[in-house]
Structure formats: C-alpha cells, structure tokens
Amino acid sequence: MVSVVLACLIFSSHQNSMAEVFLKRIAYEELLKNPQVLIEGLERSGCAAHFKKGEFTALKIHFGEKGNTSYINPNFLLPCVKFIKSTGAKPFLFETNTLYHGERMNAIDHMNLALGHGFGKLNIPVVIGDGIRGADYTEITINQKHFKSCYVAQGLKDIDFLLVLSHFTGHMLTGFGAAIKNIGMGCASRRGKLAQHCQVSPLIQEARCAFCGACAQNCPAGAIEKKDGKYVVIKEQCIGCAQCLSVCPKGAVNIVWSEEYNLIAEKMVEYAFAATKGKKCAYINFCLYITKECDCMNKEKSSFVKDVGIFFSRDPVSIDKASIDALLQQEAKDSLREAHPQIDYLHHLKYAQDIGLGSLDYTLVEI
Ligand code: SF4
Ligand code: SF4
Predict the structure, then answer these.
(1) Parent domain of 250
(2) Would residue 12 count as lying in a domain?
(3) How many domains in the chain?
(4) Which of 145, 167, 74, 85 is nearest to 115 (CA)?
(5) Which of 201, 234, 321, 352 could form a disulfide bond with 238, CB atoms 3.0-4.6 angstroms apart?
(6) Which helix (H) or strand (E) holds 108?
(7) Quick one: CA dihedral 48, 50, 53, 56, positive or negative?
(8) Are residues 229 and 264 in the same domain?
(9) Residues 59, 37: one domain?
(10) Angle ∠(234,238,240) on CA atoms, nearest 5
C-alpha cells in the first residue's frame, strides 16, 4: 500500500528502522526529455538538503563495460550535477577498477572509457578510488561472519557524502544488482573484490602465458614462482590482492569462479556494510532499460521488462526491496526469478537486514 509522506531525511550509515523510499514513475525516453525530475526527487526525498558547501560529494556510478549501452545515461545527470554544484558541494564521479580483464581494469583505460561513454559532458572529475592498478585500499573492521575486516577503495575514506547511483539489472551471481551491489562490489578494491568472489587464489593458464615474469615481479607476497619453466601461484602465500591479474599483458591470470551464490551474496553485503560504515549516504536506483545481466557485459543488451522509474532513499536495503516489489507488481510475475532461476535473490536482502545494513520494511512515497 502506498502512503504519501513528506520527510526530511536524516542520514546515518546503518539502520534497521523503517525507511522511506520515494518513487518517480517515468520511462527512459521521458527522463531523457526531462532530466530535471531527478532534482525534484532529490528535493522531495530530503536528499538535496544534505549537499554541503565544500564537501567532497561522490556520485558512485558504473560507466558500463566497452560495448555496453545500458549504463546510466550521462544526459540524465546534467541538471542534477549542475544543481549539486550550485549548493557549493564538490561533486565528482567515483568508481573502482574491475577484477577481470577489460577496459575498466586500470584507472587510465577506465577514465578513457568514461569519456568515451559521454561522461565528460558532466564536466566534473572522475576518481577511480582504488588507484591506477586497483591496488590502493583501506582496511575497515566490521567483525561479521565472513570478514573481520574489508579492503575497500582507499579513496572512499575521504568522501564526505556518497550518493550512490545504481542501474537496476538482473545479475548472474546475485539475481539482481542495484544499490547493495554497487556499494558492496563497486566500492571494493581489487583485493576486496577477489575476497568476495573466490576462496582460491588465481590460476595461470600456461597456454596463454608469454613467460615475461611480470606477475612474479609484481606479486607483493612472493606467491608466484617459476617451476619447471612455468609460472605458478603458491596458494599458501597468496594474499588475494589480484595484482597479477592487472599486470599480465596476455590475460593469462584467471580467477576461479567457484563460490556458491549465497556465499558470494553474503560477502558482497558485508562489503557494502564496510563501504558505508560511518558514512553519509543516499541512494538513487534507475529502474529503466532493465537488462537480464549487469552493465559489465561488453555488448548491447535489450531490456527484458518495462521501465518502472527512479527510486530515492537513504536505505540501501529498502531501496533495493522497493525496486524489486515495484517491478514484480508491474509485471504481475517474478521476471527476475525467471531470468535466473538458480538464485534466491532475496537471500542477500535478508542477510543485509540481519547484519544491520538497512531494513526490508519501507514506506513507499510516490512523487
Ligand atoms: S593475487 Fe596477489 S598475492 Fe596472489 S599471486 Fe596474485 S599478485 Fe601474488
Ligand atoms: S605476467 Fe602473464 S604472461 Fe607474464 S609470466 Fe605472468 S602469467 Fe605469464
């Protein structure tokens, strides 16, 4: 049931009380014609009042892998960025490098890709928070089931306000990806991403290896050795930093995607908890151009359900649950489950509530 509530949101990092989620029903093409509605959403949700003069205000975003077209359209953000600047806050685009090979694996290629995907028109800096090679992290203690501490992007610690802009999609590992995935996986350093994805260290594929030795030279743990003419990872010494993946010129270092779905999801949630611990945050979910897989896919994908609209909240669990509920209600069936029948996508939302990341209960406010 939808109730109409006007509220000024008080931001705190983690909470379990019922949150408000604000929804503007709009389609992709409509939003392109009228991106001003984002400002309306920021104001109605109370978020706008929290942009502060001089504060480093990160817009956490996913630029889309090269070849992908479904990422958040930078044209949506033009008036919003102008508005944030007018408050005196210092907005910038914030992202981290990927674990796997591609155009977003180091900060230089990543920033060039962001420009290629049109984000230069926003005329604000792009910060890749885990450094040029994804090796820069800060350790945050959380004492949860899987992790006592997490290795999040170092740049995160200097952010005053984290505005998380997420494209809601289906996902092959977690069933869907939105706010929690954007902060959990998306704010982790490469070492943190590897810790979420794998229980094992990387493997070197001999067939692709050029025997240049770069991986061994750059391994901070001395965990790569040449044995019988081949480079091998010594599991016992590996610290899972993933540096070897980024330096290999041949793409010969690979990850073993062996984790169970629920385990990956729980680890991602714990990283989301770490990334937002003690931080002022707000969330916007774009439930538009919803694809079966995430924007890491390096090809054009068509949407598989109708657009819902844009959601605003201070609670990452509530906003993701509200996005799913609205989609299911609109479709009158569980399209996410049909797309990824092997995954219980509610598992990570329940776990997120259990550890205090946010609340599954929310009040929906249509704007
Ligand atoms: S992940 Fe890090 S520690 Fe492990 S082999 Fe690669 S470079 Fe070495
Ligand atoms: S960096 Fe890559 S190509 Fe060079 S030795 Fe290591 S695995 Fe082989």
Answers:
(1) 201-254
(2) no
(3) 2
(4) 74
(5) 201
(6) helix 107-116
(7) negative
(8) no
(9) yes
(10) 140
Non-local CB neighbours of 17 within 8 Å, separated by 6+ positions: 359
Atom of ligand 2 nearest to the CA of 210: 3
Q: What is the pLDDT along the chain (367 residues), one digit of tens a residue?
A: 333 333 334 444 665 567 899 999 999 999 999 999 999 999 999 889 889 999 999 999 999 988 889 999 999 999 999 999 999 999 999 999 988 777 898 999 999 999 999 999 999 999 999 999 999 999 999 999 999 999 999 999 999 999 999 999 998 778 899 999 999 999 999 899 988 877 667 889 999 999 999 999 988 778 999 999 999 999 888 876 767 877 888 989 887 655 567 888 999 999 999 999 999 999 999 999 999 888 887 777 788 999 999 999 999 999 999 999 999 999 999 999 998 887 888 999 999 999 999 999 999 999 9
* Ligand 2 centroid to residue 217 C-alpha, Å: 10
Please tell me whether residues 99 and 241 are part of one structural domain: no
Count CB atoms within 10 A of the CB of residue 14: 19
Which amino acids bring their CB within 6 angstroms of ligand 1?
A: 201-202, 219, 221, 223-224, 233, 238-244
Is residue 356 included in any domain, yes or no? yes
Pocket lining for ligand 2, CB < 6 angstroms: 204, 209-215, 231, 247-248, 250, 252-253
Amino acid identity of residue 152, one-letter, is V
Q: Residue of the nearest CA to atom 2 in ligand 2?
A: 248
User: Are 236 and 117 in a shared domain?
Assistant: no
